[in-house]
Amino acid sequence: MDSFNLVTEPWIKVLESKTNSERLVSIEELLKNAKDYRQIAGEMHGQDLAVLRLLEAILTTIYSRVNEDGQAYEWLKLDERMQVVGSNIDEAEFDSEELLNTWEALSSKGGFTDAVFNYLDRNADLFDFFGSHPFYQVTKEQYDAHVVAAKRVDKGKGTVDLMQMNRLISQSGNSVALFAPKSAPQKNKMSIDELVRWVISYQNFTGVTDKTKVVAKEKMSNGRGWLYTLNPIYIKGKNLFETLLLNMILLNDDEDKYTIQKPVWEEDLDSYVKKRLKQIKPDNYVEVYTVWSRLLHIEWKDDVPTVFSAGLPAFNSTNAFDIEPMSTWRKDKDGNWIPATRQLSSLGWAMWRNFGQYVPLEKNEGKQPLIIEWINILKEGGYIQSTARINLHTTGIISNGGATSLMPAAEFDDNLQIEADVLFDENPDLAKKWPARIEEMVELNQTVGRKYYGFLMEIGTIRFGSRGAGDFAGRKSQDFYDNLNEPFTNWLSGLSNQDEREEKVREWKDELQKLSLQTLDQFLEQMTPRDITGVKKSGNDDADKDRDNIFKAASKFKAGVWKVIHK
Question: What is the spatial distance between Cα 255 and Cα 235, in angstroms, rounded to a whole number?
Fold first, then answer.
C-alpha cells in the first residue's frame, strides 16, 4: 500500500447518534459531522481516549493560531502550512479574549470551520501512515540512525508483535494471553484501520518490555506511555462535537500568557529525539497530547507489517499540572504534585470517592485539573450555562504493576454528572459551598464503608481466623460500594444551587442508612452455621460464655452506622 492518509481514509470508529450504529470515518469526516456522532467507539475505552486527545491536539493547534474565520492572531506569524514561523508576544498584544471569542463562535455555529480543513489539507503529507513522514512513526533511515548497529532494521531485532500492541491481548513472546478476544491464528493480524488505532494507543499505553532503546550518551530507561501514568479526566458532551469543544482548552494555566501549541508531527525528528533524551518537559498541551514513548518503524512485506520499536526516555511528570489538562494530582512525600496514577487496588473505586481531587475545597488542599478550571472559566464568562450538566468522565488502563513489564491488567471507565453551579459554587461561606457539603458526604460514605469493613473483619475472623480475615473483608467490602455507587451519583446529579443544603444532606443520610442496612441484610442471608455459633473471645477460657458471633457483629455495625449518621 503506497498511501493511507488519516485525513481522508476511514479509520476512526464512532457511534452515530440517530441509529446508535457503528461507523468508520476519517478525521475530515468526523470533524465535519461531529454533531451527528455520539462518541468515539473503538476497541476499548483507553484507545478512544488516545484518539480523542489526538483530535484535541489538531483542534487546539489550529484554533490557538487562527480564529474561526481562519485569520491568524495578530501576535503570530504563520507560513502557508499554517505553522508558526514567528511571534511577537507581549502583554500589550496578547489578548486572551480573542481566544475565548473563537471558542464562543464555534459553540454558536455548532461546528468546526474551514480553518480546520485548510490546515489538514496543507499538512496532509504529515498525516499519511506511509511515505516520507509516516504518521506516529519514523522511516527506516531515521530508525537506523537512532539505534545501535546491532538493532538496525536489517538485523531483524527489536520488533513488537501486533498481538502485543493490541492492548486487548498484550501477548508477548514469553507469555500466552489465554482469554484473548482473538483466536491464536488471528492474534497477529490487523486491518490497516485497526493498526492505525493501536499504533496511536501503543504510544500512549506502552509498557517497559521493549529491549531496544534509542542511542544515548548516558544510561536511560524506556519510558512508559504518558497516559499510563495518569488518572485521566475529561468532559463528555451530548455529542462528539460538544465533547471536542468542551475539552479544547485555548488558554494557559496562566491566562495572561500565550504558549505556542506544537504537535509532534510538526517537529523535526532529530531535534525531537535530542529534546527527549535531555528529558526536557514539554511547555504546551498539544505536545503532551501527542508525546511519543517509542520510535516506531513499520516494515511492509506483502501487506504484512513488522513493527520495530526503540524506547525513548520519559520526561519528569513532577509538577506537570500546567501542561497536562486531563489528569488528577496528588502530593508526593516531598510536597510535589505528581499524577494520581490508578492502581489495581482501586480498580472498583467510583469517581465520587475521589471528588476532592477534581474540586479541591481550597488551593492549598489540592491541585484542580486544568480541564475543570477551563470549564469554570467558560461558566464564569457565560459561555456555558450555570445550570448546564457537566459530565466528568474518567477512563484508562491499569498496569499489572510489574516493574519489568507494566503490561495492561485492567481497564476502568466511569462518569459523574453534576450541575455547573454546584461544581463551582461561589457561596462566600466555605462551609455552605456545595463542594464542601459533597466532600462531607463522601467522607461519611467512606466512614460507613470502613465500619462495614470492620464488620467483615469480625466475620472473617470467625470463619477463617485472624490470618484470613483481611483478604475476606477486602473482597466482600466492595459489595457496600457497589450498592452505594448508583444512588450516590444520582443524588449528586440531582443537586442544584437552589436546593436547601441541609434538606438535601438529610435526604442522603437517610438513603445511606437504608442502603447500609440493605447491604447487611444481603450478607446475613448467606450466614453460615459457624457465623451463628461464633468463637470464644480472646483470653476467655470458657468456650460457651460470651462468644463472638454474627449477631453481635451485626448489632455493633448497626449502632455504629446510626451513630456516625446522626451525630
Answer: 20
Contact 10, 26 (CB under 8 A): yes
Alpha-carbon distance of 508 to 487, in angstroms, equals 9
Asked whether the beta carbons of 394 and 233 are under 8 A apart, the reply is: yes
Q: What is the pLDDT of residues 410-431, one digit of tens each?
A: 899 999 999 999 999 988 887 7
In angstroms, the CA 400 to CA 404 distance is 10
pLDDT one-digit tens code per residue, 100-135: 999 999 999 999 999 999 999 999 999 999 999 999
Q: What is the rounded distance in angstroms from the CA atom of residue 106 to the CA atom of residue 111?
A: 6
Bridge partners of residue 148, in order along the sequence: none
**What burial class does residue 417 get, using C-beta atoms within 10 Å of its C-beta: 0-12 exposed, 13-18 middle, 19+ buried?**
middle
What pTM was estimated for this model as a whole?
0.93
DSSP, collapsed to helix, strand or coil, labels residue 302 as coil
Write the CA distances from 414 to 123, 350, 369, 394, integer angstroms.
36, 7, 17, 5
Find the helix or strand (DSSP H, E) in which 75 lies: none
For residue 511, what is its C-alpha cell? 438513603
From CA 515, how far away is CA 521, in angstroms rounded? 10
DSSP notation for 101-122: HHHHHHHHHTS--HHHHHHHHH
- Would you say 389 and 418 are in contact if contact means Cβ atoms under 8 Å apart? yes
3-state DSSP assignment of residue 499: coil
Radius of gyration of the chain from its Cα atoms, rounded to whole angstroms:
27
Tell me the backbone φ, ψ of residue 557, rounded to 5 degrees.
-65, -45
